[in-house]
Design goal:
- The protein has 3 domains: 163 residues, no CATH class; 162 residues, 3-Layer(aba) Sandwich (Rossmann fold), CATH 3.40.50; 145 residues, 3-Layer(aba) Sandwich (Rossmann fold).
- Helices cover 34% and strands 21% of the residues.
- It is built from 17 helices and 18 strands.
- Strands 1-2-3-4-5-6 form a 6-stranded mixed β-sheet, sandwiched between helices. Strands 9-8-10-11-7-12 form a 6-stranded parallel β-sheet, sandwiched between helices.
- Strand 1 and strand 2 form a beta hairpin.
- The radius of gyration is 25 Å and the shape is globular.
- InterPro entries: AAA+_ATPase (IPR003593), P-loop_NTPase (IPR027417), SLFN_3-like_DNA/RNA_helicase (IPR018647).
- Keywords: ATP-binding, Nucleotide-binding.
- One of its GO terms (molecular function) is ATP binding.
Length: 499
């Protein structure tokens, strides 16, 4: 997305195709409709600037309607000086609660803080009699005026004006409770509006004393774990909370349990009725992987002992035939007291990786025309010895996390990478860059679907382990194909589809 001149943009403000004109000027591929009241407010804002004889050059380099990739966090107007401040101006078509104005500007400052620059924040409100202006200095909201906005945007100096998306990286604003527990504990993050609404509904229900079992579901990258842990942190203010992790505990799990009073994180293998009755609230992450006996213990704690219970899950991420057959989400949905909330917004995995995975699973899936797979690498190794050298290079020199397939007790080629974390050990975690391998255990069926052979442990599902691995990537994904030339050609054709 490119910056624009506000005066030039607003020449088309009365046209029916204003949105198309805006997208053309900004070189944006989003093609999002612009609401009529937004256009009117922008026109009102520009008119006030022009009435004060602003020079045309100072209306240059405005970033209009920008959304941070992966989060859909939108800014109305930004102006980012290369050697100066970041100017953020939010436009409102009517007056709203000042606390909401302050919260939005505070949240915006968080997402802009990675620039390590002074952030100057305003909200312009169009009213029936004119306008109101508010400023936020990082501490409190204050009444301001259009002259202060004018002074802020009329500075000399170069501004960022092209490829604005490159200024915002996922690692600058996305956190994982497990991989970055310090940031989580310090509250150095924000939930999306959808996450916030779900959280508020659940907490209000609990505060009102209603008897509900809650389910939070969504695909990979929708932020189920962050939401669940954020709710746990809120509940821990006056309740004793247990988070059950249906997988192997990582350092982050243990760190959170040690640092946050009233929260313990335990593995599902240590879960039993006697243990969980020590807590007021029982929250279960990766619930689709629970054993039936552990699931029944949690339900008993709710029904017979009045415990608060919240489950987070994604049935697509089961890893074994046993988990698929048990189908914990269906068991929850059969309960009269159950309420399920769906997270639909992707906030972790970028759209290129999501699209590539979807296309790689089924070759006939057609990605959007404007999708590029620049963050995807497809590599080939003739054998495991060559693969080891490539993996070590990517891990130690390029900053990638290698994830191996979960092995079985039976000796197999999977043992070749035993020294690395496997797909069961990274459940609920995420990494900026991931390298993952595929070999002759995978092939494409005639209809274009990706298929996995029988895993040495017949309970594990190979293609589910594959999905678990590749969906841990947040910024870059590298797939290393070992000795399977036909598979390599197919994946390379997906990668190069638009070249």
């Amino acid at each position: 997305m490119d910056a624009i001149n506000l005066y030039v943009l607003c020449q088309a403000i009365d046209l029916d195709n204003f949105g198309d004109y805006k997208d053309t000027l900004t070189k944006s591929g989003n093609r999002l409709a612009v609401k009529k009241e937004e256009i009117i407010t922008l026109k009102s804002f520009l008119s006030e600037l022009l009435s004060r004889k602003i020079q045309m050059s100072y209306l240059d380099n405005f970033i209009y309607g920008f959304s941070i990739p992966q989060i859909s966090k939108e800014f109305d107007l930004l102006k980012i000086y290369e050697n100066g401040p970041v100017i953020n101006i939010e436009l409102k078509s009517r007056m709203i609660d000042e606390k909401k104005i302050e919260y939005q500007l505070k949240k915006n400052q968080y997402y802009l803080s990675h620039f390590k620059k002074e952030i100057i924040s305003f909200t312009y409100v169009m009213t029936e009699t004119g306008s109101k202006v508010f400023s936020y200095d990082g501490v409190s909201l204050k009444e301001s005026n259009i002259s202060e906005i004018l002074f802020s945007i009329c500075q000399d100096g170069e501004c960022y004006h092209k490829d604005i998306e490159t200024l915002f990286r996922a690692k600058d604003y996305l956190i994982s409770p497990i991989n970055t527990p310090n940031l989580f504990i310090d509250g150095n993050y924000y939930l999306t509006d959808q996450q916030e609404n779900i959280k508020n509904e659940i907490l209000k229900n609990i505060a009102d004393g209603k008897r509900t079992i809650w389910g939070i579901t969504g695909g990979a990258g929708t932020g189920k774990t962050l939401l669940l842990y954020d709710i746990a942190k809120q509940l821990s203010n006056d309740k004793k909370v247990c988070i059950i992790h249906s997988g192997m505990l990582a350092k982050g799990h243990k760190f959170i349990g040690e640092k946050i009073t009233n929260i313990d994180v335990i593995s599902a293998r240590d879960c039993n009725l006697e243990k969980i009755l020590e807590y007021d609230c029982i929250l279960v992450d990766e619930s689709q992987r629970l054993y039936e006996i552990d699931f029944n213990s949690v339900i008993t704690a709710f029904k017979n002992f009045n415990r608060i219970c919240i489950f987070a899950y994604d049935f697509y991420q089961v890893l074994s035939w046993k988990e698929e057959k048990l189908n914990i989400p269906d068991k929850l949905r059969s309960l009269d007291c159950f309420c399920e909330k769906h997270i639909t917004e992707k906030i972790r995995t970028n759209k290129e990786i999501v699209s590539f995975i979807k296309h790689a699973i089924y070759l006939k899936n057609k990605p959007d025309d404007n999708i590029k797979y620049d963050c995807i690498d497809i590599l080939y190794a003739i054998d495991y010895e060559c693969a080891t050298s490539i993996i070590e290079h990517y891990v130690y020199n390029k900053g990638y996390e290698f994830i191996a397939y979960t092995p079985s007790r039976v000796s197999s080629v999977l043992d070749y990478f035993k020294g690395y974390k496997n797909t069961h050990e990274v459940i609920g975690q995420e990494f900026d860059n991931v390298i993952f391998n595929m070999d002759d255990n995978f092939q494409y069926a005639e209809d274009g679907h990706l298929q996995g052979k029988m895993h040495p442990n017949p309970n594990y599902i190979f293609y589910k382990l594959w999905f678990q691995g590749v969906s841990r990537a947040r910024e870059k994904l590298c797939i290393l194909v070992i000795g399977n030339e036909e598979l390599f050609k197919k994946l390379l054709s997906v990668k190069n589809k638009f070249k």
